[in-house]
Design a protein that fits this description.
Pfam families: SGSH_C. It comes from Fontibacter flavus. 29% of the residues lie in helices and 22% in strands. The chain is globular, with a radius of gyration of 16 Å.
Length: 103
């Protein structure tokens, strides 16, 4: 059954329609992960870090390795994606890390 489901997603003639991809990681991981959330839309990826409320913005079309943070240069795009991410977190009732998770 799993192979049939995977085949559906791997078939190039089919796609999933969505406006953006979202990630949410509200805790520390045992392999060094930090609490954060992210959104990817139209070749752009914004990452939000809970520890210091910092954001990073990447143009994945030209910087797949995420080496050049454009958050300060592309302020309008950063604000738009951050707003969209925060709205998604709120509408999905995503768990946000508390002080205990961050300290």
């Amino acid at each position: 059954m799993l192979s049939v489901k995977c085949h559906f997603f791997l078939n190039e003639s089919r796609s999933i329609s969505r406006d953006a991809l979202y990630w949410h990681y509200p805790h520390y991981g045992n392999q060094g992960g930090n609490p954060g959330s992210a959104i990817q839309e139209d070749g752009w990826k914004l990452i939000y870090f809970y520890e210091d409320q910092r954001i990073e913005l990447y143009d994945l079309t030209n910087d797949l390795g995420e080496r050049h943070d454009l958050a300060k240069k592309e302020v309008e795009k950063a604000n738009y994606l951050q707003s969209k991410l925060m709205n998604w977190l709120e509408t999905t009732n995503a768990r946000k890390p508390g002080r205990r998770d961050i300290d």
